[in-house]
Amino acid sequence: MRNLTLLTDLYQLTMGQGYFREGKQEQLAVFDIFFRPNRLITYSVAAGMEQAAEYLEQLRFSEDDIAYLRGLGMFGEDFLAYLGKLRFTGDVFAVREGEIVFPYEPILTVRAPMIQAQLVETALLTFVNHQTLIASKASKICAAAGGGVMEFGLRRAQGPDAGIYGARAAIIGGCVSTSNVYAGKLFSVPVSGTMAHSWVMNFPSELEAFRAYARSFPDNCLLLVDTYDTLRSGVPHAIEVFRELRAAGHEPKGIRLDSGDLAYLSKEARKMLDRAGFEKTIICASGDLDETSIRSLKEQGAKIDSWGVGTKLITSADLPALGGVYKLAAVYEDGVEIPKIKLSDTTEKITNPSFKEVYRIYDGKSGMALADYITRAGETVDESKPLELFHPVDTWKRMRVTGFRARKLREPLISGGKRVAPVRSLAEIAAYRREEYARFWEEYTRQDMPHIYKVDLSPALHSLKREMVERFGKGE
Known about the structure:
Elements: H1 10-21, E1 28-34, E2 44-45, H2 49-57, H3 63-71, H4 77-84, E3 91-95, E4 100-101, E5 108-113, H5 114-119, H6 121-145, E6 149-151, H7 160-173, E7 177-178, H8 181-187, H9 197-201, H10 206-216, E8 222-224, H11 230-247, E9 254-257, H12 262-275, E10 282-286, H13 291-299, E11 306-309, H14 311-314, E12 325-333, E13 336-339, E14 356-363, E15 369-376, E16 387-390, E17 398-401, E18 404-408, E19 410-415, E20 418-419, H15 426-437, H16 442-445, E21 454-457, H17 459-472
Helix pairs in contact: 2-6, 3-4, 6-7, 6-13, 7-15, 10-11, 11-12
C-alpha cells in the first residue's frame, strides 16, 4: 500500500501543532466513526476496515513529507521533528467488514494519543465512507436481483482508486464478479466480460463477428446481440452460431442485452432460444441498471438470469456520499475518562459521549436480529434477565425482550499500533455479509418504506447523555 500519511486535511496538522504547543500531544482521546440516517439510508454494509488497518500500521512521515510541510512555512521545527518520529500507537475497535450496521452506532472507534487520533480522521473516513457506501449499494442491488450481479463500473468510477476499491466493496455487498481485471488480481475475485459493440461493428457482418468470437471462446461464448437489431438479427444470428458450436461439441453460454426494452426483449429472446433448443443458455442484461430498474424488470416478468451493473453501482448514483462522521467521545486525564459531547439544535445530531460498546440483540428462538444496544464501556448485558429497550429520543417507545442472545458487534482491529484482527479473504467477508443479512427480517431491509431498526442506548449511557446535554446546554 502507498504511504498515505499526508492523505489528511490541513487542519488536522494545524490542530496537531496546537496540541503540541499546549502539551496535549500524548493526551489519550477516543473518537467514533458513525453515520446518520436519511431517506435513502436504512442499513449499511460496513467495509474499508482492511485498508484502514493497513494505513494505520504504515503511518509515518517520510523525509520528503517533512520537507514539503516545512516548505509551507506554517510549522515549527520542533513539531516537524515530532512528526518525523510519529507512529500510530493506539487502539482501534471496529465491526467486521460485511457487518450490517445502522445509523448512530459507532462502527469504528480510535483510542490513541490526541495528535495521532486527530491526524488519522480524514483517511479513515475516506476508507470507511467510500467502501461502506458502495457495499451498501451493491447489497441493495443484489437483493433486488436475487443474485447474479456482476460489477461493471470501472470506466464510470471517479478515478482508479474508486474503481478498484469500489469493486472490492461491491463483492462484499454481494456481487459475484467484477469486470475490473486489476481488482480481480489484487483481491482474488472472479472477473467477467465478453465483448463490446465495437467487436461486432469491426467485422463485415454481425454473423461473422459472432463466429469469430465463438472460434476464440467456444466453451464460454456469450454474444452481445443488440448492436443492430436484437430480435431480427442479433438473436437469430446467435442461434445460428450456437447450432454450429453444438455441432462441434461445444455448448454456448448465452446472450447479453444492453439496450432497449429489456423486459420485452428478454421475454422474446427466451422464447426464440427455447424453440431452438437452447433452454439452458442464459440471458444477461446491462445498461444503467440499479435496484429500482431491476425490481421493475422482475415485476414485468423479464427473463434475465444475470445482471451487469456499472455506473449506478460504482458511483452510488442516488446517494453519492455516505456522510459518515468522526466525533470526539472522550479524553482521559490521569487515567480517568472525561466524556465529551457535541450539542446541536437538531436533536439527531447530538453525539453519544464516552467510550462505548455495541451489542446486537437476537431473538433466542428464531435467531433473527431484534435491535442494537449501545452501552458505556464496562457494562454487561445479562442474557438471563429481561432487557428493556427504549428509543433514545422518544423514550416512551419501549420494548421488553426476554430469552435473547447478545453479541458484541465490534472486535479489536489494532492494539498498540499493531494489527490483531485476522486478515480475511474477500470471499470470507462476502459470506459473512450473506449470513448476517439473512438474520434481518425483510421489513428492515426492503427498498420501500422499511421498518426503522432499533438502535437504543442503555440507561447508563442515556443518563450520561441527558446530564451532559442539560449541563452544557446552559453554557457550562
